[in-house]
Amino acid sequence: MAYSGNTGLTRIIRAGQYSWQGFRAAYKHEEAFRQEVWVLLVAVPLALWLGTNGVEKALMIGSILFLLVVELLNSAIEAVVDRTGMEKHTLAGRAKDMGSAAVTVAILNVIIIWLFMLS
After folding, report:
1. Does the domain made of 31-118 have the CATH classification 1.10.287.3610?
2. Using the 8-state DSSP alphabet, how is residue 89 labeled?
3. Dihedral angle at the C-alpha atoms of 75, 65, 39, 52, nearest 10 degrees?
4. Which of 17, 78, 84, 113 has a beta carbon 3.0–4.6 Å from 63's, enabling a disulfide?
5. Rounded to whole angstroms, how far apart are CA atoms 76 and 60?
6. How far apart are the C-alpha atoms of 76 and 74, rounded to whole Å?
7. Lowest mean pLDDT among 4-8, 15-19, 24-28, 64-68
8. What is the pLDDT of residues 12-26, one digit of tens each?
9. Is 52 helix (H, G, I), strand (E, B) or coil?
10. What pTM was estimated for this model as a whole?
């Protein structure tokens, strides 16, 4: 990546702006991300209420945040693959399928953690 010339606080502010742009783009263009954000908004208060200690609360909230991270990465993979061309290619399909599989594993992680914490 090219050196931007930004250092210190300016670099941090710019990085925050780029991150915010990424959140906005994901929320605008990715239905799954929007759904998971709404799950987070419901799950955080539930975790704070239902968790009996800090570790349980952190696991419950962290599992949802991890799902959002994986969804963002999956969406980035899909955007890059689609940008390179819409023709079918084995590697492009494999990349998209692997991203989807990662989201599925993250969802299973949420389910398992919440089931254990609530049982």
Report:
1. yes
2. -
3. 170
4. 113
5. 25
6. 5
7. 4-8
8. 999 999 999 999 999
9. coil
10. 0.88
Instruction: Give start and end residues of each alpha helix (H) in 1-119.
Output: 8-29, 31-50, 54-84, 90-118
Q: Nearest-CA neighbor of 22 among 10, 12, 30?
A: 30
**∠ CA(79), CA(85), CA(88), 5° rounding?**
105
Contact 60, 114 (CB under 8 A): yes
Q: For residue range 100-118, what is the model confidence (pLDDT) as tens digits? A: 999 999 999 999 999 999 9
Phi-psi region of 5 (alpha: psi -120 to 50; beta: other; left: phi over 0): left
Helix axes 54-84, 31-50, angle to 10 degrees: 170
